[in-house]
Amino acid sequence: MSEPIDVTTTVKVAMPTTVAKAVAVPMDEVLQIANKWKKKRGSLIMALHDLQGRLGFVPRESAMRLGRAMGVPLARIYEVVTFYNYFKLEAPGKYIISVCTGTACHIKGSKNMLEGLERELKIHAGESTPDREYHLQAVRCLGCCGLAPVVTVNGKVYGKLDTMNACYVIERVQQDKPMIAAQEEAVAE
Ligand code: FES
User: Fold this and answer.
1) Residue 1 falls within a domain, yes or no?
2) 72-124: per-residue pLDDT in tens?
């Protein structure tokens, strides 16, 4: 993996808090998914598909929140999740790295960044490293296009990245270290 670099002016970050200990999709994103799908007939599968797209699996806590927001019993959600092989209830890696390939991020170079991360981690998008430390995936618009190109690590959003500073962010998250102060200031711009 690349050495840490000075990303003072380029990285806008949401601070990592706990890492990979209680991974869940943020509540506002769960509500967005629920609002998008709850009025559509037979939409539970699509909502779960959307939910899994955020982290590569369906965390129990997020499934409960989704159920409450959509008015669907948790038992019904688990019935669906366990019926279809596509859905995963376990994290596919300790660090789930999602690279947004939506239009705004694509224009700002997310394809190159994804390819760079594939080289660094020696896996392709959709795969996990053999030790299941990292899982890399390409996702659609994460709803924060102003920060394009965007990467999330275990659901936390990091923006305006390239391959090198994406690697740096991953290293910091892995070490459970916050970003440097200048980067925090960048968030507040
Ligand atoms: S296109 Fe990447 S966050 Fe919207």
Assistant:
1) no
2) 999 999 999 989 888 988 888 899 999 999 999 999 999 999 999 999 999 99
- Distances in Å between the Cα of 92 and the Cα atoms of 1, 31, 89, 180 are 20, 24, 9, 29
Specify the residue with its C-alpha closest to ligand 1, atom 1: 102
Beta carbon of 106 within 6 Å of any ligand 1 atom? no
Structure tokens, 86:
């596509």
Tokens 């936390």 belong to residue:
156
> Does the beta carbon of 77 sit less than 6 angstroms from any atom of ligand 1?
no
> Is there a single domain that holds both residue 100 and residue 176?
yes
Asked whether 105 lines ligand 1 (CB < 6 A), one says yes
Q: Residue 21 corresponds to which amino acid?
A: K
pLDDT digits (tens, 9 = 90+) for 13-60: 433 333 334 578 888 889 999 999 988 877 899 999 999 988 888 998
Q: pTM higher than 0.70 for the full model?
A: no
The reply to whether ligand 1 has any atom less than 6 angstroms from the CB of 104 is yes
Q: Which range marks the domain in which residue 49 is found?
A: 27-83
